Amino acid sequence: MRPRPEIPAWIEDYRDAHWRREGTRQVETVFDAERFIEQVGFTAMIGKVKDNLPFWSEKLPEMPDLLYDSLQQMKRLPLQQQRTHLALLQEQKKTTQTTHLSVVGATFVLMSAILPMYDLSWYFPASTGVIGAICWYLAWRKGL
Q1: Contact assessment for residue 98 and residue 142, using Cβ atoms and an 8 Å cutoff
Q2: Rounded to 5 degrees, what angle do the CA atoms 22, 23, 27 make?
Q3: What is the pLDDT of residues 44-61, one digit of tens each?
Q4: How many beta carbons lie within 10 A of that of residue 101, not counting itself?
Protein backbone atom coordinates (compact mmCIF):
# COMPACT_ATOMS: atom_id res chain seq x y z
CA MET A 1 0.00 0.00 0.00
CA ARG A 2 1.36 3.41 -1.01
CA PRO A 3 1.79 6.05 1.68
CA ARG A 4 -0.77 8.84 1.48
CA PRO A 5 0.60 12.19 0.33
CA GLU A 6 0.89 14.81 3.03
CA ILE A 7 -1.65 17.63 2.85
CA PRO A 8 -0.15 21.14 2.78
CA ALA A 9 -0.53 23.27 5.90
CA TRP A 10 -2.60 25.96 4.17
CA ILE A 11 -5.24 23.36 3.23
CA GLU A 12 -5.35 22.11 6.81
CA ASP A 13 -5.75 25.71 8.04
CA TYR A 14 -8.64 26.22 5.61
CA ARG A 15 -10.29 23.03 6.80
CA ASP A 16 -9.82 24.03 10.44
CA ALA A 17 -11.43 27.41 9.83
CA HIS A 18 -14.35 26.32 7.65
CA TRP A 19 -15.07 22.96 9.20
CA ARG A 20 -14.69 24.34 12.73
CA ARG A 21 -12.18 21.76 13.86
CA GLU A 22 -10.07 24.02 16.09
CA GLY A 23 -10.15 27.26 17.99
CA THR A 24 -13.08 29.21 19.35
CA ARG A 25 -15.42 28.01 16.61
CA GLN A 26 -14.83 24.34 17.39
CA VAL A 27 -17.95 22.16 17.58
CA GLU A 28 -18.09 20.88 21.16
CA THR A 29 -21.73 20.64 22.15
CA VAL A 30 -24.84 19.20 20.56
CA PHE A 31 -26.16 22.74 20.07
CA ASP A 32 -22.96 23.71 18.20
CA ALA A 33 -23.28 20.62 16.01
CA GLU A 34 -26.91 21.43 15.16
CA ARG A 35 -26.01 25.02 14.31
CA PHE A 36 -23.05 23.86 12.19
CA ILE A 37 -25.24 21.47 10.22
CA GLU A 38 -27.85 24.21 9.70
CA GLN A 39 -25.20 26.56 8.33
CA VAL A 40 -23.14 24.14 6.24
CA GLY A 41 -25.27 21.06 5.59
CA PHE A 42 -27.51 19.99 2.75
CA THR A 43 -30.48 22.01 3.96
CA ALA A 44 -28.31 25.14 4.01
CA MET A 45 -27.36 24.47 0.39
CA ILE A 46 -31.01 24.01 -0.61
CA GLY A 47 -31.88 27.24 1.20
CA LYS A 48 -29.18 29.14 -0.67
CA VAL A 49 -30.44 27.72 -3.97
CA LYS A 50 -33.98 28.84 -3.10
CA ASP A 51 -32.73 32.30 -2.20
CA ASN A 52 -30.82 32.67 -5.48
CA LEU A 53 -33.46 31.06 -7.71
CA PRO A 54 -35.18 34.35 -8.66
CA PHE A 55 -31.84 35.88 -9.68
CA TRP A 56 -30.88 32.79 -11.69
CA SER A 57 -34.27 32.63 -13.41
CA GLU A 58 -33.87 36.30 -14.32
CA LYS A 59 -30.44 35.61 -15.85
CA LEU A 60 -31.40 32.32 -17.55
CA PRO A 61 -32.52 33.89 -20.88
CA GLU A 62 -29.11 35.56 -21.21
CA MET A 63 -27.16 32.33 -20.65
CA PRO A 64 -27.03 31.05 -24.27
CA ASP A 65 -25.68 34.39 -25.51
CA LEU A 66 -23.16 34.55 -22.67
CA LEU A 67 -22.06 30.99 -23.38
CA TYR A 68 -21.72 31.72 -27.11
CA ASP A 69 -19.73 34.90 -26.42
CA SER A 70 -17.42 33.04 -24.04
CA LEU A 71 -16.78 30.31 -26.59
CA GLN A 72 -16.03 32.91 -29.27
CA GLN A 73 -13.58 34.66 -26.97
CA MET A 74 -11.86 31.36 -26.22
CA LYS A 75 -11.67 30.70 -29.97
CA ARG A 76 -9.94 34.05 -30.56
CA LEU A 77 -7.64 33.76 -27.56
CA PRO A 78 -4.78 31.83 -29.24
CA LEU A 79 -4.62 34.38 -32.07
CA GLN A 80 -4.54 37.26 -29.60
CA GLN A 81 -1.81 35.52 -27.61
CA GLN A 82 0.21 34.94 -30.76
CA ARG A 83 -0.09 38.61 -31.76
CA THR A 84 0.96 39.73 -28.30
CA HIS A 85 3.88 37.31 -28.34
CA LEU A 86 5.07 38.56 -31.73
CA ALA A 87 4.78 42.18 -30.58
CA LEU A 88 6.83 41.39 -27.48
CA LEU A 89 9.47 39.61 -29.57
CA GLN A 90 9.74 42.62 -31.88
CA GLU A 91 10.06 44.95 -28.91
CA GLN A 92 12.72 42.71 -27.38
CA LYS A 93 14.65 42.63 -30.66
CA LYS A 94 14.49 46.42 -30.93
CA THR A 95 15.66 46.82 -27.34
CA THR A 96 18.53 44.39 -27.88
CA GLN A 97 19.65 46.22 -31.02
CA THR A 98 19.46 49.57 -29.21
CA THR A 99 21.54 48.20 -26.34
CA HIS A 100 24.16 46.77 -28.68
CA LEU A 101 24.43 50.01 -30.65
CA SER A 102 24.76 51.99 -27.41
CA VAL A 103 27.55 49.73 -26.14
CA VAL A 104 29.40 49.85 -29.45
CA GLY A 105 29.00 53.65 -29.53
CA ALA A 106 30.33 53.97 -26.00
CA THR A 107 33.29 51.75 -26.86
CA PHE A 108 34.21 53.88 -29.87
CA VAL A 109 33.83 57.12 -27.94
CA LEU A 110 36.10 55.79 -25.18
CA MET A 111 38.60 54.70 -27.81
CA SER A 112 38.53 58.19 -29.30
CA ALA A 113 39.34 59.57 -25.84
CA ILE A 114 42.19 57.10 -25.25
CA LEU A 115 43.83 57.12 -28.71
CA PRO A 116 45.26 60.67 -28.44
CA MET A 117 47.51 59.41 -25.62
CA TYR A 118 49.40 57.40 -28.20
CA ASP A 119 51.20 59.40 -30.79
CA LEU A 120 48.89 58.57 -33.66
CA SER A 121 47.53 60.72 -36.41
CA TRP A 122 44.53 62.84 -35.48
CA TYR A 123 42.16 61.08 -37.87
CA PHE A 124 42.16 57.78 -35.90
CA PRO A 125 40.68 59.31 -32.73
CA ALA A 126 38.41 61.57 -34.79
CA SER A 127 37.07 58.70 -36.89
CA THR A 128 36.42 56.49 -33.84
CA GLY A 129 34.64 59.38 -32.16
CA VAL A 130 32.47 59.93 -35.24
CA ILE A 131 31.68 56.21 -35.47
CA GLY A 132 30.72 56.20 -31.76
CA ALA A 133 28.48 59.24 -32.23
CA ILE A 134 26.81 57.62 -35.25
CA CYS A 135 26.17 54.42 -33.25
CA TRP A 136 24.65 56.44 -30.40
CA TYR A 137 22.48 58.36 -32.86
CA LEU A 138 21.27 55.10 -34.46
CA ALA A 139 20.54 53.64 -31.03
CA TRP A 140 18.58 56.74 -30.11
CA ARG A 141 16.59 56.55 -33.38
CA LYS A 142 15.82 52.86 -32.88
CA GLY A 143 14.69 53.53 -29.34
CA LEU A 144 12.02 55.98 -30.46
Answers
A1: yes
A2: 60
A3: 889 889 999 999 889 889
A4: 20
